[in-house]
Write a sequence for this structure.
């Protein structure tokens, strides 16, 4: 016997000994998870009755980035299941539809068949499903219909984009606010004369934005997505008022925090219509933030938390 087969045999023996009963009746899916993978990362969405209820995304490490596309497509499904595990459990989901634009991944998971290089990932998918106590119905979704998950997997996390100047002016006018400094921008995408950057460039007031003093300012903040939690923490610590540009992404910790903070918001529109992609974003075949974009007004000044609804 090939020694490499022993772990798999032991796994099957353990499964038989556990004797966990399985649901034989196929339950109609209660939610739908859509996933996609790209060389730089992965993305996943969770929907219920065509309404987006959660979004998840991440990047690959150096080792993962070198794996085959089939391997990473299956890993994207695993990451999606793990990211949405709490939501699935809290919603008492028993059956989940999974959609992937990789036909090989769909076939392998459905049939429990895969090459040696993929069998570990296939096993992880089924172990995760078993741990969640759910059924799955996995289907192939053509790439042209997988727009949001595709954009998440190719998401530009460096912030190489900006709000269109016209939208910026309209937002300030409608909110009756005049921001004093543009944070997390560079000389090619700043919307205000005074701006701070995360790296050294040309004309910035300061670099290393998160370590600067934001007091005595009304900052316009359009940060890279990974920095949003740190931005909210900074606003709370410095007890200031700030205008934050961020996508409507349910399920993200920073989004939940914004909603729970009694923050007022102004819908700006779909990202494709209001954002301008930068040169490097286009060259690297990265994507803009999918979905709708909002301007959130967060006021943590002492005694001002309850005044937001009277502002606009």
């Amino acid at each position: 016997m090939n020694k490499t087969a022993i772990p798999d045999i032991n796994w099957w023996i353990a499964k038989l000994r556990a004797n966990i009963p399985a649901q034989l009746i196929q339950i109609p899916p209660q939610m739908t998870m859509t996933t996609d993978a790209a060389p730089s990362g992965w993305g996943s969405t969770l929907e219920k009755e065509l309404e987006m209820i959660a979004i998840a995304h991440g990047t690959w490490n150096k080792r993962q980035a070198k794996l085959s596309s089939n391997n990473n497509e299956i890993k994207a499904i695993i990451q999606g299941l793990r990211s949405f595990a709490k939501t699935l459990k809290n919603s008492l989901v028993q059956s989940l539809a999974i959609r992937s634009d990789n036909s090989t991944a769909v076939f392998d998971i459905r049939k429990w068949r895969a090459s040696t290089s993929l069998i570990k990932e296939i096993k992880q998918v089924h172990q995760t499903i078993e741990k969640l106590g759910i059924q799955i119905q996995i289907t192939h979704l053509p790439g042209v219909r997988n727009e949001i998950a595709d954009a998440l997997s190719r998401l530009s996390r460096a912030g190489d984009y900006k709000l269109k100047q016209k939208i910026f002016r309209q937002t300030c006018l409608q909110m009756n606010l005049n921001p004093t400094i543009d944070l997390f921008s560079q000389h090619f995408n700043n919307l205000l004369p005074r701006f701070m950057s995360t790296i050294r460039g040309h004309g910035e007031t300061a670099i290393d934005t998160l370590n600067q003093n934001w007091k005595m300012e009304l900052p316009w903040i359009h940060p890279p997505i990974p920095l949003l939690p740190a931005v909210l923490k900074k606003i709370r610590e410095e007890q200031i008022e700030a205008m934050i540009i961020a996508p409507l992404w349910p399920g993200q910790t920073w989004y939940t925090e914004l909603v729970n903070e009694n923050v007022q918001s102004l819908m700006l529109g779909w990202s494709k219509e209001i954002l301008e992609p930068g040169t490097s974003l286009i060259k690297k075949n990265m994507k803009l933030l999918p979905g709708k974009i909002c301007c959130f007004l967060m006021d943590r000044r002492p005694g001002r938390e309850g005044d937001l609804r009277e502002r606009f």
Observations:
- The first strand starts at residue 31 and ends at 37.
